[in-house]
Design goal:
alpha/beta, flat
C-alpha cells in the first residue's frame, strides 16, 4: 500500500509512549506519507523514556482540512 502524497499528523505531549509515536511514524514514512508532529506550545517533546521528538507545528496552527489522517 502506498501512501505517497498523503499527510498524516501525530499528536505528542511530554511523557508520550515511545512506540506509540515512533513506530507509526517510521512505518508511515516508509509507505511515502508526510508525517507532521503537532503539540501544544513547545518545539520539542520528551517521551517517558527520554527520547526527544521535534514538533513541526503548534496544535493551534494545525489545519484539519489539509490532513489525510490523524
Amino acid at each position: 500500500m502506498s501512501l505517497s502524497g498523503k499527510r498524516v499528523t501525530i499528536l505528542a505531549e511530554d511523557g508520550y509512549e515511545d512506540l506509540e509515536l515512533w513506530y507509526p511514524r517510521i512505518r508511515l514514512e516508509e509507505e511515502g506519507a508526510e508525517v507532521v508532529i503537532v503539540a501544544k506550545g513547545k518545539q520539542r517533546r520528551v517521551s517517558k523514556h527520554t527520547y526527544d521528538v521535534e514538533v513541526d507545528h503548534d496544535i493551534s496552527e494545525a489545519d484539519p482540512a489539509s490532513l489525510d489522517g490523524l
